Amino acid sequence: MPTVFSANRSNVLVDGKQVDGLQSLVFRVVTEREDIRAVGSNERVDVIFGLRSVQGELAIRSTSVAIDELLDKRKKFQLVANLKKTEGSDDLRSLSFDDCFVEGKSFSMSANGSAVTTYAFTATRIREE
Predict the structure, then answer these.
(1) What is the pLDDT of residue 1?
(2) How many Cβ atoms sit within 10 Å of the Cβ of residue 59?
(3) What angle do CA 51, 30, 108 make, to 5 degrees?
(4) How many CA atoms lie within 13 A of 31 on its CB side?
(5) What pLDDT, in 10s, does the model give residues 40-49?
(6) In contact, 92 and 83? CB cutoff 8 Å
(7) Euclidean distance between CA atoms 56 and 123, whole angstroms
């Protein structure tokens, strides 16, 4: 049976403080790689792996003064996502993003909704507990 985490029971912390207005957290782990080619062939014979990093985005309804400050000051922070299952369950998974930096910010507002600011961040690593 799959583990289904509930967004309204989970939370995200930046330097130990809960992020208010969080709409979504998206991340991907990216690993550099280089193909080793066989001489006289169009096939690879091996792969060399390099740098591994984490790229992510936080979408926040309207904006976050604390994250804006991290962007302005180019300050390092830790992000922790505590993922919880539905009510009545003690199942918890924590994702810790280490040595994070906010690298960009975008803003959108639609006629039928409220403003959303999306913050792009990178991390040195992610740990799952």
Answers:
(1) 63
(2) 16
(3) 130
(4) 8
(5) 989 999 999 9
(6) yes
(7) 8
70: helix, strand or coil? helix
* Tens digit of each residue's pLDDT (9 = 90 or more) over 77-127: 999 999 998 766 677 899 999 999 999 999 999 888 889 999 999 999 999
The encoded tokens of residue 63 equal: 């904006």
CA dihedral angle for residue 106, residue 76, residue 72, residue 19, rounded to 10 degrees? 50
Backbone phi and psi for residue 10, each to the nearest 5 degrees, phi listed first:
-90, 165
Question: How many Å apart are CA 58 and CA 24, to the nearest integer?
Answer: 6
For 22-42, what is each residue's pLDDT tens digit?
Answer: 999 999 999 999 999 989 989
